[in-house]
Amino acid sequence: MTSHPPENNPRDQRLITALLDVMAALRTPGTGCPWDLEQTFATIAPYTIEEAYEVADAIDKNDLPALKEELGDLLLQVVYHARMAEERDAFAFGDVVEAVTTKMIRRHPHVFGTEEERAAGVTAGFWERAKDKEKPDDAARGVLDGVPVGLPALTRAIKLQNKAASVGFEWPSLGPVFDKLKEELGELEDVLVGGEAASDRTKIEEEFGDLLFVVANVARHLKVDPEAALRAANQKFTRRFHAIERKLAQDGRTPAQSTLAEMDLLWDQAKAGERGR
User: pLDDT tens across 189-203, in order?
Assistant: First the structure.
């Protein structure tokens, strides 16, 4: 017997309807909000990306009240885009929900499929194969096509590398990746030592980009999310720098009123304090 997802409770349905009504009112000419009426897919897109990052930030901080609020803000972005599409007679919010529900059921036969499909469970590479079946059968379609350009650059680098690796364009181990990392670092140093950076900023940006691309490949081989790792490093830097500020404030000073040597010492103290916890 095929499984089906549980039905939503009536309260959820009423609240979603209320949110859709609010957005419709905001976008109604003459009586709606002037700012909301001026917006387009393009002008709202940056807010959509920002809200997704704020969701991730709340998760990183394990702040569930903030997560509830940020998820609401992200949901509003979906409702916003769907409303603008409905105004063009392209699709509506219900179509979005129906499409993603159908897709999730289709991609999870081990949960919603036949008894045989559920018994088979999940095999290696299942998710990618399921997604590939949904793509148009286009002989001209390249291996890297379909990786969104608007993704964060490090995330997109990982996805591009995974796509290339899926057809064999891949170093078999981490050793050659580290060799490439050293090579790219050397090329960046050569540009700087050669004085090219001063006259050709495009060249130094290119070499720096190549270096970051290989760093992303290191992360991929280590199965590390580079965006998450960098966010954690940013948080660590912020935490330790705040410790420097607090120590200096006890002496009635600010970082601008201290020396690099003093701040380095306080940094080491903050670092040691964290490791000693």
Answer: 998 887 655 568 889
